[in-house]
Amino acid sequence: MTPISFETAAVHAGREDFRTLGVHAAPLDLSTTYPVGELADAIRDIDAMIAGGRPERNAIYSRLANTTVDRFERAFAELEHADDAVAFGSGMAAVTAALLVARQRGAHVVAVRPLYGGTDHLLESRLLSLDVTWATPDTVADAIRAETALVVIETPGNPTLSLVDIADVVRQAGRVPVLVDSTFATPVLQRPVELGATLSLHSATKYLGGHGDVMAGVIATNHDWARALRQVRILTGAVLHPMGAYMLHRGLQTLAVRVKAAQATAIDLAARLARSPAVERVYFPGLPGGDPRRLIGRQMTGPGAMISFDVAGGFDAAATVLREVRLLTPAVSLGSTDSLIQHPAGLTHRVIGEAARAEEGLSPGMLRVSVGLESADDLWADLNDALTAATATATAHEPREAVTV
C-alpha cells in the first residue's frame, strides 16, 4: 500500500477491521469480565497477559485487557511510528509505570527541568526509591552512572516552552533509555521514537482527548518496554477505562486539524503579546529567539499552541488577568477546544520547591495559555482587556508623591 499522510492515518488508524465487523463507528466494550470457553485456551491467554502480552482469544478480566483500549493503543502506536503503545488511567499513572519499570533496571534517573510539576514532584519525593540527578540538556552525559536506568526530559518544556534536542540527549544517554514527555507537541508536531527515544509519553487528557472530558495517559515504545509496562499496569491497577479509550480513539481523528488550527492562532497571539507594554516577556518557540537550537523544522514541524508570558506587575497583576478574562477559562490542563489560562507557580508547579521554580524562571507573574479554536481576534481582545485592567490596577496602587499646595 502507498504510504499515507499523518492526517489520513489519524482518521483511519485502528479501523482496519471495520468492514469485517460491519460497523462505521468503533465498538465500545464495557465488559468487566469475559465468559471462559475452553479452560486451556483461557489459561494460555492469562499467561500471555501476565507476561505483558495481549490475549489471543479471551481478555478474562478488564483490568488485564480490553478490546477498546487495545484498539486505541494500536492506533496511537501507528501515529507515533512506534512498535506498540500502552494506555493508563492518567498521565501520572503512565509516568509512574515507566519509573517503576526503570527501577527494576537500576536505582538512578537523570532528569532535565523543566518538567510537568507532578513528574518533578514524584522524582523529588523518592517515593519510588530512585536517586535523581538533575542535569541540563548539555550535561546529560556527565550525569550518567553505571546504575542509571532512565533519562527523563520534556520538550516543549512545561511551562517555559523551552525545546530540548531529543537526538542529542539520546546520543549522550548512550545505552540508557530516554523518556520524552511529548504532551505539548503531540505526534502531529513531533515523534520522539523516530529520533531515538525509547519512550514517548503523553498526558492523553490533553490534546489527544481534546475536549477536556477524558483523563488518561499513554506511552508509545518498543515491544519489550510495552510488555514491562503492561505488567506494571496489571499489578498497580492503573487501567484506562474503555469509555476513555473510546473517546481518545475518536479524538485522534481530529487531532491534526485541532493542533494545526490552534497553533496558527498561537503564532498570532504570541506576536501580539510580545508587543504589549503590559507583558514583560513571552515564552513561545515561534518567536525570534524562542528556538535557539533551531529545532523547529528539524525536530518539530511547528511551535505548537502553548504560550507563557510574564505580566508586568508580578503576582498581583497576573491574578488580576485571571480574574478579568471572560473568554479564556482560568483553569489548569491544556489541549482543549477552548482556551485555558493558568498560573504555573501557584497551581501546576506549586508542588515543586520554590528554589526550583525560581531557577527555571517560573516567576510570580507568569501565566500559561493553552490556545484553543476560538478566533484569534476574540482571544486577543479578551487578553488585552484583562491586561489593561491589570495595568490600571497596578497604577492605582502605586505610591504617589505628596503634593504641596
Total discrete domains: 2
Oligomer: single chain
Record the strand order, biggest sheet. 1-7-6-5-4-2-3
Shape annotation? globular
Weakly predicted, low-confidence segments:
399-405
What integer value in Å does the Rg equal?
A: 23 Å
What is the CATH class designation of the largest domain?
Alpha Beta
Tell me what the CATH architecture of the largest domain is: 3-Layer(aba) Sandwich
β-strand amount: 5-15%
Helix-strand sequence: HHHHEHEHEHEHEHEEHHHEEHEEHEH
Residue-averaged pLDDT, rounded? 95
Head-to-tail CA distance between termini: 87 Å
Give the proportion of residues in helices: 25-40%
Number of strands: 12
How would you characterize this protein structure?
With 405 residues, this protein is an alpha/beta fold. It folds into two domains: 6-31 and 66-252, Aspartate Aminotransferase, domain 2 (3-Layer(aba) Sandwich), CATH 3.40.640.10; 256-396, Alpha-Beta Complex (Aspartate Aminotransferase, domain 1), CATH 3.90.1150. Helices cover 39% and strands 14% of the residues. Helix 1 runs antiparallel to helix 4 (67-80), helix 4 runs parallel beside helix 11 and helix 5 packs across helix 10 (223-236). The radius of gyration is 23 Å and the shape is globular.
